[in-house]
Design brief:
The protein is α/β, with parallel strands linked by helices. The chain is built from 8 helices and 9 strands. It has helices at residues 2-16, 89-94, 110-124, 150-157, 187-196, 210-222, 238-242, 248-255; strands spanning 20-21, 27-28, 78-83, 102-107, 143-147, 163-169, 197-207, 226-228, 261-267.
Length: 270
């Protein structure tokens, strides 16, 4: 079973660098200079950016409109966080749905970050066509990306209880036993995530690898600060609907007719 899952993931990773398809059915061509390896070792000492503390993080370098007194986003704080955002599909999908929320993605691969920055800049300048149904006048001022290592530096960016939503979508399964410590969900990391999430905040997870899904569910279930949200409560949640299809990995799973396994958890008081 594990071998089959490994082969399935390997085949999927071959597809991951192919052009992604938006919810509107339009392909976003990923130019060769932006293509990257599907995996990076998050435990290696990489040259990544991170602030000494949340208080000194200069978010206006990610969201230029924060310093514009005429912008409705002036002096806002980040409340939505996409961990390992890849090519930014979820950022783009959520931006017009939550125009009054700052949404940031963390990604470790340099070329992928360059692609997302380039696309966001073009969306802001109306140089590329946005997703179907985006309101006229929406310029994606509320989304941005940071190249950093989310397994090491999340508390350096966010204050205690700052985040309202966090997304862990199609993370690397790291099948080999000696690589399990590279997974972005673990008892130790959940303690850090709980620290930056406010009580009542939601964590959205999804994968097309059942073994990884069961592992993540076990980690969340065992943690005293997280409680699973019944699917019946998520029917009207616009963010929940988009975790299935907004990303390149979600589209790959659809093309290959793979089952997707979601789980959403609420940060509870404690």
């Amino acid at each position: 079973r594990v071998f089959a899952s490994m082969m399935e993931a390997a085949q999927g990773n071959t597809q991951a660098n192919k052009p992604s398809t938006s919810a509107a059915g339009k392909k976003h061509k990923i130019l060769p200079r932006f293509r990257a390896r599907p995996h990076t070792n998050p435990l290696s000492d990489l040259d990544v950016e991170y602030p000494a503390s949340p208080e000194v993080m200069q978010w206006d370098s990610v969201f230029p409109y924060l310093t514009d007194p005429q912008s409705p986003l002036s002096n806002y704080h980040v409340h939505f966080f996409d961990l390992g955002c890849g090519y930014g599909g979820l950022l783009e999908a959520l931006s017009p749905v939550y125009p009054d929320k700052l949404i940031v993605g963390f990604e470790i691969r340099t070329q992928v970050v360059a692609y997302v920055k380039d696309r966001i800049e073009k969306l802001r300048a109306s140089k590329v066509k946005p997703l179907e149904g985006v309101p006229a006048g929406h310029h994606y001022e509320n989304v941005g990306i940071v190249r950093t290592n989310a397994m090491k530096y999340v508390p350096n960016f966010f204050r205690r209880g700052q985040l309202e939503k966090m997304f862990i979508l199609f993370p690397d399964p790291h099948f080999k036993r000696h690589n399990l410590k590279r997974r972005v969900v673990s008892p130790q990391l959940l303690a850090e995530y709980a620290y930056v999430l406010q009580p009542g905040a939601l964590v959205y997870t999804i994968t097309d690898v059942r073994d990884l899904h069961e592992y993540m569910v076990a980690c969340f279930d065992d943690h005293p600060l997280f409680q699973r949200v019944p699917e019946s409560e998520l029917a009207g949640d616009p963010a929940y609907g988009r975790i299935f299809t907004a990303t390149a990995d979600g589209e790959r799973a659809d093309r290959k007719s793979l089952n997707k396994h979601p789980a959403v958890y609420r940060r509870i008081e404690g």
